[in-house]
Amino acid sequence: MVEIQTPRNWQKTCFRFNRILSFEYRATWKSNYTLRYVRPLQLLFDNGAWYLYAFSNKGKGMRIYSLPCIRNIVIQKETFTYSASVDFRLRVDNSFFLGLILKKKT
C-alpha cells in the first residue's frame, strides 16, 4: 500500500521516516514525464529554486531533481537507511547550493 501525499506534507513524512518516494519527473530538456523511485536525502535551495537531492533507484546514484518538474508524488511504505558519511555538503564545497538537512540519516 502507498500513500498519496500533497505537496505540502510529503517532505515531513519521507524525511522523518526515511521512506522511498515515487514521482513523475520531466527534465527541462524532455517533453514527457518518466516514473522515478528515489531515496530522498535533502532539500536544496539555489537562486530562488528548490531541488530534491536523492539516490535514484534507476540510475543507481545521487541525483538532483527540480521540484517544479515533479508531479504525482507518492510515498512508498518501503524504508531505507543512508550511511552517516552521505552528506550533500561533502560534495559541493564552494557551491551556491544551500542544503537543508531535515533529518540526519544513520
Question: Could you characterize what this model shows?
Answer:
The protein is built from 2 helices and 7 strands. The chain has 106 residues and is mostly beta strands. It has one domain. Strands 1, 2, 3, 4, 5, 6 and 7 form a 7-stranded antiparallel sheet that branches. The longest helix is centred in the first third of the chain and has 8 residues, at 10-17. It is globular, with a radius of gyration of 13 Å. It starts with a strand and ends in a 6-residue tail after the last strand.
Q: What is the fold's blueprint, element by element?
A:
Blueprint: E1 3-4, H1 10-17, E2 19-25, E3 34-46, E4 49-56, E5 61-66, E6 70-79, H2 88-91, E7 98-100
Antiparallel strand pairs: 1-6, 2-3, 2-6, 3-4, 3-7, 4-5
Summarize the structure.
By secondary structure, the chain is mainly beta.
Features:
single chain, 46% strand, 7-stranded antiparallel β-sheet, mainly beta
Helical fraction equals 10-25%
Number of domains: 1
Given helix and strand content, the structural type is: mainly beta
- Give the mean pLDDT: 76
Q: Rg from C-alpha positions?
A: 13 Å
First and last CA, distance: 25 Å
Total helices: the number is 2
**Which range does the strand content fall in?**
over 45%
Number of strands: 7
Shape: globular
Biggest beta sheet attributes: 7 strands, antiparallel
